[in-house]
Amino acid sequence: xxxxxxxxxxxxxxxxxxxxAVAPMLALPxxxxxxxxxxxxxxxxxFSFTLGDTKLTVISDGYFSLPLxxxxxxxxxxxxxxxxxxxxxxxxxxYSHTNHLLVEKGDQKLLVDVGSGHRFFDTAGRLAxxxxxxxxxxxxxxxxxxxxxxxxxxxxxxxxxxxxxFPSAEYxxxxxxxxxxxxxxxxxxxxxxxQQFVLGAVNSITADGVDxxxxxxxxxxxxxxxxxxTPGHTPGHMSVLITDGDQSLLALGDSMNHAWMNxxxxxxxNSSDTDGPLAAETRKRxxxxxxxxxxxxxxxxxxxxxxxxxxxxxDSYRFIPALWQF
Length: 326
Description:
Layout: H1 9-17, H2 19-26, E1 46-51, E2 54-67, H3 77-86, E3 93-105, E4 108-112, H4 127-133, E5 143-146, H5 151-154, E6 170-174, H6 175-181, H7 186-189, H8 195-205, E7 212-215, E8 220-222, E9 225-229, E10 238-244, E11 247-251, H9 261-264, H10 276-293, E12 297-298, E13 307-313, E14 316-321
């Protein structure tokens, strides 16, 4: 833990419980002139594009806000504050989108992560409804890839009746990630503020009706979709590489979770990272890979739809949002 004051996972869970009450406060930036307001009627929650002959759709599970002092904990608070001001961002909180990737190849429909359902923030848990809005039923999903077992990525694996949300899907998870959370007695060895995260992960992994295929680095889930080891945020975090012909896209999961900070300061890490220095090392490797091979990326917590390119700028990088096509 950093010597700086940073919220614990207990704080995060308390925040989730009172999110409806505190959301208006968290949403207030100190520089009000840099803020634009939410729409009165909502915005579209999906964005479709193609990669060769593969259809890709980004689908939102909603959003949540987290205290800013969870971010860049190995930098000074003054540095983080100055960075946010310079980028026209709130200086007290971070508004996190939740961008799920749906990959459609022939009859196969693969979904990356399942969101948090009704078990985390009230502003999230919208994945099923947003899939339905584009004509995708829960039975239509044939494959699910879980990048890691944090609440906003796996707690939505069960519906309100504790049945698998996607009853026809093959569920996949990294072997290392599975083994970490399923260690005997792990819940008794972690700090008290981490225990609910362990219990939530175990309850999700052991959900009735969910059978797991456990993956290792470079394993193929379906033709053209492979996983790669990207540890640090969690011990067994994996990202997902989609390839069609000579075109590729990298779904980052939480190996990067801030579309400005992670690029300008890839060495900064967060209190939610299990191993901060390893998370930074993994991030630099992915950024270099994206630049060298000109691979577009999808950030789970980037501003919706979260798809863009990586440009090198000296020792740092810049996220360039992809050009929308109508």
